[in-house]
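In this supplementary section we document a worked example of the pipeline. Step one takes a protein sequence of length 475 as its only input; no multiple sequence alignment statistics are reported here. Step two produces a three-dimensional model, which step three serialises into structure tokens for compact storage. The input and output of this example are shown verbatim.
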Amino acid sequence: MTAREANDSPDGPTILWFRDDLRLADNPALQAAVERGEPIVAVYVLDEESSGIRPLGAASKWWLHDSLLALSVSLEEIGGGLVLRRGPAAAVILSLVAETGAGAVVWNRRYGGAERAVDTEIKQAATDAGIDARSFQGSLLHEPWTVTTQQGGNYSVFTPFWRACVAKGEPRHPLPSPDAITPFDDAVASDELTSWALRPTSPDWAGGLSDAWTPGEHGAIERLAFFIEQTLDDYAEHRDEPAVLATSNLSPHLRFGEVSPFTVYHAAEQARRGASARRATSATKFLAEIGWREFSYNLLFHNPELATRNFRPEFDAFPWPEPDARALRAWQRGETGFPLVDAGMRQLWKTGYMHNRVRMIAASFLIKNLMIDWRIGEEWFWDTLVDADPASNAAGWQWVAGSGADASPYFRVFNPELQQKKFDPTGDYAHEFIPELGTAAYPRQIVDLGETRQAALAAFEAVKRGAAASAPPAG
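The serialised model returned by step three reads:
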């Protein structure tokens, strides 16, 4: 039976397709479904099969499991439920349309190339079958095609990009959660969440993640409120100090859309207005960091292969050696002999998270002291971070490597010893995650920082000379 045959009435139920927006508050697709007035079939599709779709890493799968549980409970509280399906999203959604006789399909937009291709396929097939298919802006303050240079091009430097965003005026205010939804009366088959095996079992390494995080919309709102009320004042002054609780820790909640950027933006903006100079400065700085998330998605939209291809093509000639397996393993385990790097990597393994300043230091060490391709580090973070974001993760690694947009110059090498003296001078952060620090059990340093820095700079200079030699003459 085709979708058209199943759709006896244009007033059939609405398929509400959840993706990276696992929340009820400020969910434009959910609001559109409620306003349509028909019963709602809410569905989440675990798609690891569509062409180009990148499967989630292990830590993100752990988060997804708990987030879906939380979403299901929230939907039940307002009269609905959550259908779980696994497979290629286009086939799954169109099959569900046929099963239910749906008259509409709604979702909030995503911005990766493969994801947009899936959405286009569904929208075209649904439209051809006489079904209303609509998508909405729920995940970015400013969608990529709305922020362009005066010449109509794309920004590759953050500061003018964010200036252009700010000039567009205040983003819309968040939408309220619906009080109730009309459920679809007929039974709809759903997978059991446990059958997806998103949680680790043999062994169960997620104990530290469970101690550190509360996935789901309620956890996101509580974390946002705590940040605004308790730690925002310290943000501008102390956000680079990993031992100080001064950052929001909202990144995994934003990654899975348990809170919208509009909600976060207006909470920070409200805190900024009429506040003390210190609080206002911190709020402004925090809003700019939300801007970096926007900038990363702008880059991903225009460069779908951001996680695998150098943004700056001259870096394609960089002479990456065969990675040293022992050095890579030492980095992954936090056994390099450099405390700030090791503490960060152990924090990552224990909690699924790493302080952003330490991320830059750990990434720089892998790329420029171990001479290991940034893509290998990006893959490790993708698998181990609970906030492994397809835009921010790739853009961040390319920024450190020097191959990305608005990149840190390649000759900027984060010296982990100097960085520790500056940002963890008492060693509180390092000692928290390295109990054997200062004893004979702690590993020796696996490389000489000066020698490896010079080797990396020499390789980069060779690439620069090659690029200059191959460039066309000026004029």
